From TrEMBL:
Keywords: Guanine-nucleotide releasing factor, Protein transport, Transport. InterPro entries: Mss4, Mss4-like_sf, Mss4/transl-control_tumour. Gene3D superfamilies: Metal Binding Protein, Guanine Nucleotide Exchange Factor, Chain A. This is DSS4. GO terms for molecular function: guanyl-nucleotide exchange factor activity; zinc ion binding. GO terms for biological process: post-Golgi vesicle-mediated transport; protein transport; small GTPase-mediated signal transduction. One of its GO terms (cellular component) is cytosol. Coiled coil: none annotated. SUPFAM superfamilies: Mss4-like (SSF51316). PANTHER family: GUANINE NUCLEOTIDE EXCHANGE FACTOR MSS4 (PTHR13276).
Amino acid sequence: MASTGKVRKARCQFTECASSLISVPAVDSKTTDRLIYFPGAIMEKYKIMETREGADAQKEYEFLVVPEFWDFDNIGVSRDLCQVTEDRDNAEFKFEWDGHTWELIHCQRYLACAECDRGPIGLLCEVQDANDHSSTRKICLLSIASVDCK
Ligand SMILES: [Zn+2]
């Protein structure tokens, strides 16, 4: 298999922690559809932590789709349920992955660093097939802007 670009490593952004979270495909990788982009509104809506400046609604934010927990090296899941209520008509956050178009319909819990518990750095959520509303999956979405990734 030909390699396409360097694999990155996502770590906790707090240097005194820097716990390893997961391997992230390179931005230019052609072999993955696990890197997706959401409008800046997602950062505000779900109160996702960022590295630098406040959420920019004009900007698109990179997320990694993580279908299984054990894909992470380390991850923490909040005990708190997500404050944002279920939204079955929410086509606001749509993305292409695994040959389907998905809509984020229900955030259940937040992802945080397993070591220092800082976050949220992502969401544990339910997504629905935009073309078949009976088909849902539970996935993790890791916000690349919320971690140190290089
Ligand atoms: Zn940490």
